[in-house]
Amino acid sequence: MSKKLQDIPVTVVEVNDQGEYEEIRLYAKHKKIYPRWINGLFNKWRIFFVIATQLFFYGMPWVNLNDRQALLFDLANRKFFIFNLVFLPQDFIYLTALLVMCAFGLFAWTTIGGRLWCGYSCPQTVYTEIFLWIEKWVEGDRMARIKLDNGPRNARKIRLKLTKHAIWIVVSLWTGFTFVGYFTPIRELWHETLTLGISPLEAFWVLFYGFATYGNAGWLREQVCKYMCPYARFQSAMFDADTLVVSYDLERGESRGSRKKGADYKAEGLGDCIDCKMCVQVCPVGIDIRDGLQYECIGCAACIDACDEVMDKMSYPRGLIRYTTENALNKIYPESKFLSRLKRPRVLMYGVILLIVAVITLVSLAHHQPVKVNIARDRVALVREAEDGMLENSYRLQIENADEKSHVYTIQAEGLEGMKVLVDGGNAVSVSATGQEDVGVRLHVDAAHAKAGSHPIYFIVTARDDPKIEVREKSSFIGQNP
Q1: Do 300 and 211 have their domain in common?
Q2: What are phi and psi of 182, to 5 degrees?
Q3: Are residues 311 and 409 in the same domain?
Q4: Residues paired with residue 80 on neighbouring β-strands, in sequence order
Q5: How many Cα atoms sit within 13 Å of 278 on the Cβ side?
Q6: What backbone phi and psi angles, to 5 degrees, belong to 379?
């Protein structure tokens, strides 16, 4: 086939309202968007969030605490270090709680403020913004980039394109390296990289995440938000008439049209919108906010900054495009009453669930014990008669010390009268910081106190130097055969 797929028009013919035949294109070739640079209050906020999030992302792996990386998810050793806390795989419930809080926090925030997360802090938005800064720095602002792309392929064009992509690739690879540095100690990873000793698995993830950053932020850009991100699709389920969104004041702006500054435009039947299309030119997803709220809108407010700048030049009041709610725009209540609308059922429901999960998680963390005990029974001989004539059950206890200092633990058991605890090597088990020890334990019980069947018992593991560090784990003792 000589033609590319995007060059083949796929159309249907429909009859419009005027009874005329109209060709509707079902597949349109993607058009590159060239966002125009704009200054303004909300642009400054976007710059702030880009810098703040990336200082944290790129800088945190290099921060040390207690002679180790402050934030490290050591999958190989199944240890997760979050500042002063050490979590083990048994603490998976905390990850579940974190995900639930993130989900309901996002739901609540979306109901209140729409897609402000997307416009200011979403990684896709942040890295696209960074890549656009690089593109603007190398190739120039909007018209210069359009002219360059439409111009002939000469030495200058090749030089600028190669420079831009080279910087993109460096940023992408450093992003991939930093990402892997959260799972492999980053200083070790840096040394391995410099000495070409990096493992194939680590190299794969550096390249994979770097390629994803390069592709998503450099090439796909707004297409990720429009076609790949599920959040854009289900956000409408959380929006209501009191959700704060970027809105065009149709009543004030229409009818739109050009005019001279100082002209009596109202006498000509015109509104405040001069149809300059600046709001479209600065939009990173290429929509016209004057067409109403659209799922593609990420709430970045670039159009607000652009419109306010135009209003200032025309000596018109600001706010033709602004953050507001549908009800406020329809004058159901004044915009100053927005905060009072937060006390609506949907927001309260999300807030209550979020608060409950957060309180439970914090209480649990406050009582979190830095020791875990896994118990495995001897399956070969469930019960046997010991030399002293008592019934014996054998166990293997795995003691995991989640503290960053070593402890000596003692083992006790309760649940049956006269129970004796015999620990291999003595009842003083030393476990190094964030280490683990396996120890054999035998329980002896008089046959008179352990009838046939299974009896619930508890192992109690306590740190000698800190009695507050104690854990109780349930198990069972098999009594004599009938």
Answers
A1: yes
A2: -85, -10
A3: no
A4: 73, 87
A5: 21
A6: -85, -10
CA gap 301, 78 in Å, rounded:
43
Q: Are 161 and 138 in contact (CB under 8 A)?
A: no
For residue 125, the surrounding DSSP H or E stretch is helix 123-139
Residue 321 lies in a domain: yes
Tell whether 403 and 341 lie within a shared domain: no
Domain that holds residue 398: 371-478
Bridge partners of 24, per DSSP, are 12
Distance CA 173, CA 203 (A): 10
What's the total number of domains in the chain?
A: 2
pLDDT exceeds 90 at position 391 = yes
Based on the fold, state whether residues 306 and 436 are members of the same structural domain: no
Query: Both 71 and 173 in a single domain?
Result: yes
Which pLDDT band holds residue 11 (cuts at 50, 70, 90)? Answer: low
Give tens-digit pLDDT for 246-304: 999 999 999 999 999 989 999 999 999 999 999 999 999 999 999 998 989 999 999 99
- 404-453: per-residue pLDDT in tens? 899 999 999 999 999 999 999 999 999 999 999 999 999 999 998 998 89
Helix (H), strand (E) counts: the chain: 15, 18
365 Ramachandran zone, left/alpha/beta (phi>0; psi -120 to 50): alpha
- DSSP for 185-226 reads THHHHHHHHHTT---HHHHHHHHHHHHHHIIIIIIITHHIII
Nearest to 410 by CA among 393, 425, 388: 425
**Three state DSSP letters for 429-442:** EEECCCCEEEEEEE
